Amino acid sequence: MEFQIVQAFFMLGFVAMAAGALWFFMERNDLKPELRPVATYATVIAFVAAILYYVMKDVVQFPLGEIGVEAIRNTVELRYIDWLITTPLLLIEFGIIVALAGAAKKGLITRIVIADLIMIVTGYLGETSEPGAPGTVVLFVISSLAWFYIIYEIFRIDISNGPAHAQRAVKIMRLFVVIGWAIYPIATAIEQFLQIGGADIALAVSIAACIYVVADVVNKVGFGIVAIQAAKVSSGIHE
Amino acid sequence: MEFQIVQAFFMLGFVAMAAGALWFFMERNDLKPELRPVATYATVIAFVAAILYYVMKDVVQFPLGEIGVEAIRNTVELRYIDWLITTPLLLIEFGIIVALAGAAKKGLITRIVIADLIMIVTGYLGETSEPGAPGTVVLFVISSLAWFYIIYEIFRIDISNGPAHAQRAVKIMRLFVVIGWAIYPIATAIEQFLQIGGADIALAVSIAACIYVVADVVNKVGFGIVAIQAAKVSSGIHE
Ligand SMILES: CC1=C(/C=C/C(C)=C/C=C/C(C)=C/C=O)C(C)(C)CCC1
Ligand SMILES: CC1=C(/C=C/C(C)=C/C=C/C(C)=C/C=O)C(C)(C)CCC1
Predict the structure, then answer these.
(1) Which atom of ligand 2 is nearest to the CA of B127?
(2) More confident residue, A239 or B29
(3) Taking CB atoms and an 8 Å cut-off, how many pairs form between chains A and B?
(4) A115-118 long-range CB contacts below 8 Å, 24 or more apart?
(5) ipTM for the predicted complex
(6) Confidence band (pLDDT; 50, 70, 90) for B146?
(7) Sequence spans of domains, chain B
(8) Is the CB of residue B166 less than 8 Å from the CB of residue B100?
(9) Ligand 1 atom closest to Cα of A127?
């Protein structure tokens, strides 16, 4: 059963997200009432991912099914449902920390959330159309431009007047959006190139699936921990 | 498998409602005890919808079933069970915000809830009888008149003496009832006309199903966010 490890990774994703959701839920009440939304967002994001990983592990028939690469491919819809809901929420969560750093700017979050939705929808359309076709390439280019726009906007924010801990949090969270988020287009690109080249892609799809799980945990749970840490300091709790 | 996206939309509806329910549940305790019912209603509404979407996604055999348009049609009962329970609760939730705006009027909520029940019951009877038959048309007309009555009543409310944030919330929530709710009769009307015209309606039913999901999320989760936001400000929490 060569897909055993990939199947187990989906289970890992499920427990990691469930653990994250419970964690953020418990920490929530220690924050000042005005800052609790940080934990609300983090909890909801991990909870949504937990539900979707729960279904994905069934789709790949964890723990006992014998599957082929098709089963892993069938998780694509679930992954995009996750991203459609959670990536806007991640950006809104980021917006609260930006406000904490004294740099809230009218319309910024709205603009990057719209770009984010464009990124996800065009990414999905690209991923489900013919590999290498001109239309597919155009869709991926639009998706990537939308992501670059988000990066451009969040690096333009002037946080130099905020409290040190909030500045630090914003800087770390920016890196998540650049480096942590980059994992997804890179994995998708590699998969697409292998498909166009006619390679046996079972291995590539499997490796990509495992990488997505790790990236998801980092970008949701890791991101949430950084945000809540900053909210804690602002709430007068020093760890 | 051409119905893949429609099937995925039902899953999307499920997670979105589950996320909304958890969200409102968490925010509830931050409100003043007198205002917590706003969050109670919002939570219960999203929770009921989550349960029904959970079943609907099974009815359309998400994630792996091969279905025809019939499967999507089989969600009609579930949709109306949802509406029968949640639309009265939405109007009661609205009533609390109206009271916050200092415009509670005896009997108003009772009257619009009764109109709402008439709207849903006649709508269901119309939807399940022969397309284009005179009786069907009469049922849809009664259903629509009931909705117009609700709109008439909620626009007659004089909120001019309430606090600004509550006035704003009432104004936004009115728009949900006019524009957000209009999506349902419009989608139903289009579906009926296509059926009468003998068109191949698989596509129309599919598109309508997706639109219903988006409308439901907006009208339940979006509506709840506006209401809770107003209740938060009234509770002295400024974000
Ligand atoms: C640019 C680009 C993409 C970007 C995806 C991203 C950036 C996803 C982020 C997901 C996150 C952060 C998940 C939650 O934890 C796609 C859609 C793969 C398609 C190819 C182009
Ligand atoms: C007027 C009219 C209708 C109205 C339906 C409405 C207004 C439904 C609202 C549902 C909501 C708000 C759901 C919860 O989120 C029907 C029954 C389609 C039948 C045709 C006439």
Answers:
(1) 19
(2) B29
(3) 57
(4) A115/A146, A115/A147, A115/A149, A115/A150, A115/A153, A116/A87, A116/A88, A116/A91, A116/A146, A116/A150, A117/A84, A117/A88, A118/A142, A118/A143, A118/A146
(5) 0.95
(6) very high
(7) 4-234
(8) yes
(9) 19
Q: d(Cα B83, Cα B152) in Å, to the nearest integer?
A: 20
B4-234: which CATH architecture? Up-down Bundle (1.20)
Lowest mean pLDDT among A46-50, B159-163, B200-204: B200-204
Other CB atoms within 10 Å distance of the CB of residue A84? 20
- The span from the CA of B73 to the CA of B85, in Å, is 20
B17: amino acid identity, one letter: M
Which one of B143, B212, B219 would you pick to mutate in the ligand 2 pocket, going by the greatest count of ligand atoms within 8 A of its CB?
B143
Task: Note the pLDDT tens digit of each residue in B8-65.
Answer: 999 999 999 999 999 999 999 999 999 999 999 999 999 999 999 999 999 999 999 9
Please confirm whether the linkage preceding B63 is cis (ω < 30° from 0): yes
How far is the C-alpha of A218 from the C-alpha of A234, rounded, in Å?
23
Task: Using a CB–CB cutoff of 8 Å, tell me whether B225 touches chain A.
Answer: no
Q: Which pLDDT tens digit goes with each residue over A67-110?
A: 999 999 999 999 999 999 999 999 999 999 999 999 999 999 99
The token duo for A217 is: 């945990």
Chain A, nearest residue to B17 by Cα: A48
> Which residue's entry shows tokens 């945000």?
A227
Token pair belonging to A12: 């890992």
**Closest of A161, A194, A156, A192 to residue A174, by C-alpha:** A156
Q: Which residues of A touch B25 (CB under 8 A)?
A: none
CA of A139 to the centre of ligand 1 (A): 13
CA angle B166–B169–B173, rounded 5-degree value: 140
Cα B227 to chain centroid, rounded: 14
Whether residue B22 and residue A43 make contact (CB cut-off 8 A), yes or no, is: yes
